[in-house]
Write a structure and sequence with these properties.
By secondary structure, this protein is mainly alpha-helical. The protein is about 35% helix and about 10% strand. It is built from 13 helices and nine strands. The termini are close together. It binds zinc ion.
Length: about 375
């Protein structure tokens, strides 16, 4: 019995919206998980089901110990007693997706999706079709509508959804109390700080930081280091004229009546503030202090430029500001499809009852 891919997508989307995994697994990009949105997980699920069963909810593989069944080829135990039941299998898939982000170490290729780990390209093979299908339902994540912008867009997904829920999903739920050293500051929960803020040495910033490490969210530490390394490699470091802060827990624009700034999460950096003040048209390319030539280096690592904010309305433009989006340019996602696998955990073969144990080559054709 075959379930329509679009019906499966809707089931997965509803289940992931009800129980969204927090954060993005380290190996997520090659499976299309770059922002961690439920839509991305649902597309991945559709692609996995295509690989495992051709969407046949009655497919089975009795040569596995105990057998594996249904659209994702779970054991019945793994799928709440009946893996033929599509809703059960969907629930089990969402549970395992959550597990793959829980520690943010093992990732998708770690403990929870072992066969995908052995055949990662198959796990992602049907993503383009899944995305097309998702797009036809109008629910695939898309870039905010671009209106007139201060400078031409380079054609990449820009700012992330500006909601606390989106920030929390990506960076871990931030709780805080009002107040701090300056007007508009907040004081984050120390537990969140310990779990998420790390110190990163960025050698290219030593001239501004007196060799002090920069505090930032753990998810952006590597991308940030890569941005400045590539800026230096391209000989563009002289364009960075000042460093104006990164992790500063506060309201937007230090205004207590506005929302929480992404700087509170340690995922946005300000540079060249003197030449690109908040609420003004940023310094154009070629002018002293302009950030425009630096945009591609930031975008390549998933940072959106605040100079695009406001859709052409200068009062919301923030030309000093680059914020991480959890996304990387499409080209990088495609490139990462062939990246080498992390070695599998030796415990995988030990009958871990959570392992999605399917044996792609043995699955009955649809
Ligand atoms: Zn900023």
């Amino acid at each position: 019995m075959t379930i329509a891919a679009s019906d499966l997508y809707q089931k997965l989307l509803a289940a992931f919206r009800g129980s969204p995994p927090h954060g993005v697994p380290p190996d997520g990009a090659q499976f299309g998980i770059v922002s961690g949105a439920p839509e991305e997980w649902a597309c991945f699920g559709v692609s996995v089901a295509h690989a495992e069963s051709g969407f046949d909810s009655r497919s089975e593989n009795l040569s596995d110990p105990g057998g594996s069944f249904g659209i994702f080829q779970y054991s019945h135990e793994q799928a709440f007693g009946n893996a033929y039941d599509v809703d059960n299998s969907v629930r089990a898939f969402v549970r395992d997706a959550n597990a793959s982000t829980a520690g943010l170490r093992d990732g998708i290729l770690g403990r929870r999706f072992s066969t995908i780990g052995m055949h990662p390209s198959l796990g992602a093979a049907w993503l383009p079709e899944a995305r097309q299908l998702a797009g036809s339902t109008g629910s695939v994540p898309v870039a905010p509508a671009a209106s007139a912008q201060p400078v031409a867009s380079t054609g990449y997904l820009h700012a992330m959804p500006q909601t606390v829920a989106a920030f929390d999903a990506l960076y871990g739920k931030l709780t805080w109390t009002e107040g701090g050293p300056d007007r508009g500051d907040i004081t984050p929960d120390p537990g969140w700080v310990t779990a998420n803020i790390v110190k990163m040495d960025i050698p290219q910033m030593h001239r501004f930081t007196r060799r002090e490490p920069i505090e930032c969210h753990r998810l952006i530490a590597q991308p940030l280091a890569a941005v400045f390394a590539s800026i230096e490699q391209a000989g563009k470091l002289p364009l960075v004229l000042s460093y104006d802060g990164l992790w500063v827990p506060r309201h937007k624009d230090h205004n207590p009546s506005r929302g929480i700034s992404l700087h509170s999460y340690g995922s946005a950096i300000d540079i060249n503030a003197e030449w690109n003040p908040y609420g003004h048209v940023p310094a154009p390319a070629g002018a002293k202090g302009s950030c425009v030539e630096l945009i591609p280096f930031f975008e390549a690592e998933g940072f959106a430029w605040g100079g695009y904010f406001g859709g052409g309305n200068a009062s919301d433009t923030d030309g000093m500001h680059f914020e991480w989006t959890g996304r990387v340019p499409v080209a990088s996602v495609a490139d990462s499809g062939g990246s080498p696998l992390a070695p599998e955990s030796p415990s995988l073969s030990g009958g871990d009852d959570q392992v999605l144990d399917i044996g792609l080559d043995l699955v009955k054709p649809a």
